[in-house]
Amino acid sequence: xxxxxxxxxxxxxxxxxxxxxxxxxxxxxxxxxxxxxxxxxxxxxxxxxxxxxxxxxxxxxxxxxxxxxxxxxxxxxxxxxxxxxxxxxxxxxxxxxxxxxxxxxxxxxxxxxxxxxxxxxxxxxxxxxxxxxxxxxxxxxxxxxxxxxxxxxxxxxxxxxxxxxxxxxxxxxxxxxxxxxxxxxxxxxxxxxxxxxxxxxxxxxxxxxx
Length: 210
Fold this sequence. Notes:
Strand content: 15-25%
Number of helices: 5
CATH architecture of the domain at 68-209: 2-Layer Sandwich
Order of helices and strands: HEHEEEHHHE
CATH class of the domain at 68-209: Alpha Beta
Distance between the termini: 131 Å
Strand order of the largest sheet: 2-3-1-4-5
Largest sheet: 5 strands, antiparallel
Mean pLDDT: 79
Shape: rod-shaped
CATH superfamily of the domain at 68-209: Sporulation related repeat
Low-confidence stretches: 1-5, 39-60
Structural class: alpha+beta
Radius of gyration: 44 Å
């Protein structure tokens, strides 16, 4: 038996035309899709910060050569060292004070503080607070950085000196001076006073101004 189905010539041609039309339509749709999506500009990428600014506070320290503000307890001022010495001798309460020369005047100070809030004036005491500026320079018998560190220390009895490699004698001189002062008094404001007195007069590596 012959099951082959015969088609007319017209039917075959129509099927071919339909196939070509469907293929062209598919290609056109795909082409339009690619064109419409490929022509758009890409959005710029954003940079996201992974860490914020460093907000950690550091302790502010005066730079080399910068004037350091301090506060002193002043008991009097005289035109000569002799009269200042006589005044101290006649007042036993001033035994721990120091005479410091600034310009042509001789000042009697009883303490030196780093902050105004640290100033202590006893009731009825014949003294007043005075602000000064201390500017570091160059020391002859000590390391200026070691002296400066001691002056700015809250507790001079806990000062740890750096071991100098280039000049052991300077280190030894300053260490002896600091040891003697802290043995004389445990009050850092008084110890700082006598340290400043020595290194602004006998070894004038600090300049005092008002």
